[in-house]
Amino acid sequence: MSNLLEGKNAIIYGGGGSIGGGVARTFAREGARVFLAGRTRDRLDAVANEINASGGTAEIAVLDALDERAVDDHVQKVVSNAGSVDVSFNLINRGDVQGIPLVEMATDDLLRAVVDGLRSSFVTARAAGRRMIEQGSGVILHLNSASGAGAMPGMGSTGPADAAIEAFMRYLAAEVGPHGVRVCGLWTAGVAETLSTEKLAAVGGPGMPDPQTVERMIAGMATLRRVPRLADVSEVAAFLASDRASGMTGTMANVTCGLVLR
Fold it and tell me: Which residues, listed in sequence order, are joined to residue 144 by a DSSP beta bridge?
């Protein structure tokens, strides 16, 4: 049996991050040629070097996923060099702020994740979608925490940002579907490898508990009594990007270990 993504060209925005890098490694292992895009060269190089050393194929581009021209030019370059863009996955950091009551939150702190998240999702999906429509095939992926469909105190800007991006992606799926292009997403939260002290402080402020405490708290609320691992997320992403998920579009795959039950 061939690899899931044999012959596919995949662009991963935020490819030097924890989740982006994990997804890139899995995509490459499954046969994809991965194009890592992000703002920090050192992180992109580290992921690309690991993939190439393991026998995969990875290339990098230093760009900002909020920059329309840079994204459009990069997609054009990928298509010119590789022949197609088969998968586009936006995994950039939106700048979410949590742990502050909404009535006390600064306007910019609320809007940053909404605006940056929606803008980068739109810019990257539009650039890839135009090429995929010409090809008659392709998959656009996104990820959020499922907070947009519920209401949990203390989630700050995450819920509004999730809701905005997820709604955009459903509308996009309806428009590009007749051209053979699929749009899918993943719900996940508290991925173990992302729970560093620095990242928790960046989202929730200096009063956040230590990573081990946060992991135990999330695991205690999840039906499977554990938090998702990076491998859980990247394996599902590879499936959604593959032809084996060809009947799926406009929907989310739940990779929360039962933290969310829907």
Answer: 187
Which amino acid, residue 253?
A
Q: Are the beta carbons of 31 and 4 closer than 8 angstroms?
A: yes
SS3 state of residue 146: coil
CATH topology of domain 9-189+229-253: Rossmann fold (3.40.50)
pTM given for the model:
0.93
Question: If you ran DSSP here, which 8-state letter would residue 242 be given?
Answer: S
Domain locations in the chain as residue ranges: 9-189+229-253, 192-227
Which stretch of DSSP H or E encloses residue 90?
Answer: strand 87-90
- List the chain pLDDT tens, one digit each, 262 residues: 579 999 999 999 999 999 999 999 999 999 999 999 999 999 999 999 999 999 999 999 999 999 999 999 999 999 999 999 999 999 999 999 998 999 999 999 999 999 999 999 999 999 999 999 999 999 999 999 888 877 778 889 999 999 999 999 999 999 999 999 999 999 998 888 887 777 767 776 676 778 788 888 888 989 999 999 999 999 999 999 999 999 999 999 999 999 988 8
Residue 226 tokens read as 């554990």
> How many CA atoms lie within 13 Å of 37's alpha carbon, on the beta-carbon side?
25
Write out the DSSP string of 172-213. Answer: HHHHHGGGTEEEEEEE----GGG--HHHHHHHH-TTPPPHHH
CA distance 124 to 67: 9
Write the CB contacts of 199 (distance below 8 Å, at least 6 apart in sequence): 18
Please, are residues 143 and 188 in contact by the beta-carbon 8 Å criterion?
Answer: yes
Q: How big is the chain by its Cα radius of gyration, in Å? A: 18
